[in-house]
Design goal:
The chain is an all-alpha fold. The chain has helices at about 1-10, 15-40, 50-85, 90-120, 125-175.
């Protein structure tokens, strides 16, 4: 067990990867909550004559926020597999990658086509489809956040177990020398 504990999280920079994953997941969970509960529903209230300009403005601004966060989130999810190369926590890292890939797929295959339609003008049905389809991303990002929290807990627990195992071996070595 002692060797397995040491394998679970023994790479340099591991804490940085896991914290960056947590920060990007938390940021995206917050952004998607605001988008789902406030911004997308408010599209229905924008007058037809202003909609195209507003949608273009919104799309440009939100992409500057969401784009880098999604790249960091995918990158840190992939790096988490390196951090948790073996042991019982690896499955969480793999699930985290699954969530990140699913989020990119749903964004590209479901949400972007809806936004492309809305770029041509106000369409209540497209807005309602945008809101309905976005629930998938809403729940995926909440799940991704939970995975990121669990990976941080796993890393902390693994480091504590490693530290305790090293102390135990040192004490046993000292006792044998006596």
């Amino acid at each position: 067990m002692k060797g397995k504990v040491a394998e679970e999280a023994s790479h340099p920079g591991e804490i940085s990867v896991v914290i960056a994953a947590l920060i990007s997941s938390a940021a995206m969970a917050g952004v998607i909550s605001a988008v789902q509960l406030i911004i997308y529903p408010s599209f229905l209230e924008i007058p037809d004559g202003s909609f195209v300009a507003y949608h273009q403005w919104y799309s440009e601004k939100i992409t500057k926020i969401v784009g880098p966060l999604m790249v960091v989130e995918l990158g840190t999810a992939l790096l988490s597999i390196v951090v948790f190369t073996a042991g019982r926590w690896r499955y969480l890292a793999v699930i985290g990658v699954g969530f990140a890939v699913a989020l990119w797929a749903v964004t590209g295959l479901v949400q972007l086509p809806q936004h492309s339609q809305l770029a041509n003008g106000y369409d209540a049905e497209s807005i309602e489809n945008l809101v309905r389809g976005n629930w998938i991303r809403f729940w995926l990002w909440q799940g991704k956040l939970v995975i990121s929290i669990l990976l941080l807990v796993a890393l902390i627990k693994s480091r504590r177990l490693n530290r305790d195992a090293i102390r135990t071996r040192a004490l046993q070595s000292q006792r044998r020398k006596r």
